Amino acid sequence: MVEREPLQRNPAADEPRARLGVNIDHVATLRNARGGANPDPIRAALLAASAGADGITAHLREDRRHIRDEDMYRLKDEVGLPLNFEMAATEEMLAISLDVHPHAVCLVPEKRTERTTEGGLDVAGQRHMLAGFVDRLGEAGIRVSLFIDPQEAQVRAAAELGAPVIELHTGAYHQAALATTPARIQDEFDKIEAAATLGQDLGLEIHAGHGLDFYNVQPIAGLPMIRELNIGHFLIGESVFMGLHEAIREMRRLIDDARSGMLV
Q1: Is 210 among the catalytic positions?
Q2: Residues 55, 19 contacting (CB under 8 angstroms)
Q3: Annotated catalytic residue, options 59, 169, 174, 207
Q4: How much is the pLDDT for 1?
Q5: Residue range(s) defining the domain that contains residue 114
Q6: Is residue 101 among the annotated active site residues?
Q7: Could you tell me the CATH number of the domain that includes residue 55?
């Protein structure tokens, strides 16, 4: 691990422990590259549970490029952690999610040509279409989250729609951190902080995710409004070098350090 400077007291120290959701999509990506059953994403989910994860996230895409239908059922039945079912707002996915009945559904945008989710839902512009999905999932007792960019209009639209949770897309913050331009990093961080603060003021539970890694996670985890971080691609990639169990344990430690009052 990279050595870090001593950390300073953070206001999040008095807030509840931030949950870590581990996204196991790209274990399935590796399995599907060759076909067959290995590596098994359910085995990865069980390993994540033993390493300190608080939940499992999996995205069932329309093209089934990684997670498959049977994976979702197995994750619900065989893993003792809450399942966060990421999906596009389509009737096909709604029917599957209602049958699987996960702990939570996170509605995300989806394009066939994208390599990964490129941005948040346009809740403000698609409010009428999304309302039916939020209502039907909520009526089934499934907690609904909306994956949005950290923008005031999107946060307010999500609150007006009645979804109890928003997940803030941290992809632009990740890209800024890669560019290592302090002013740009601060600007993207400020957007996340402002959106999280507004969401909390509006009564929403705030989650965050996309592009978070060992080197950029602590400032986000240190925000007292953030209750859950969902992280996948980096952890699966890092597991090649240090093992999945150790990668998750290190991420858990970094999040807990940030939450207990220490920030880089």
Answers
A1: yes
A2: yes
A3: 59
A4: 34
A5: 11-259
A6: no
A7: 3.20.20.70
Binding-site residues for 3-amino-2-oxopropyl phosphate, please? 23, 34, 211, 232-233
Annotated binding site: 23, 25-26, 34, 61, 66, 116, 211, 232-233
CA distances from 103 to 100, 106, 143, 195, 255 (A): 9, 10, 6, 25, 23
In a domain, 246, yes or no: yes
Evaluate if residue 4 carries a pLDDT over 50: no
Closest to 130 measured CA to CA, from 112, 114, 154 = 154
Give the DSSP H/E element, type plus range, for residue 148. strand 143-148
Q: How many domains does the chain have?
A: 1
Question: Looking at residues 117-142, what average pLDDT do you find?
Answer: 93
Reported as a single tens digit per residue, the pLDDT across 78-114 is 999 999 999 999 999 999 999 999 999 999 998 655 5
Give the residue-averaged pLDDT of 48-65: 97
Within a domain: 104:
yes
Q: Which of 169, 174, 207, 210 is catalytic?
A: 210
35, two tokens: 């076909």
Q: Is residue 264 part of a domain?
A: no
Note whether residue 2 is domain-resident.
no
pTM for this predicted structure: 0.91
Tens of pLDDT along 159-195? 999 999 999 999 999 999 998 889 999 999 999 999 9
Is 246 annotated in the active site? no
Q: Which residues are annotated as a binding site for 1-deoxy-D-xylulose 5-phosphate?
A: 25-26, 61, 66, 116
The two structure tokens encoding residue 211: 């592009």
pLDDT value of position 5: 43
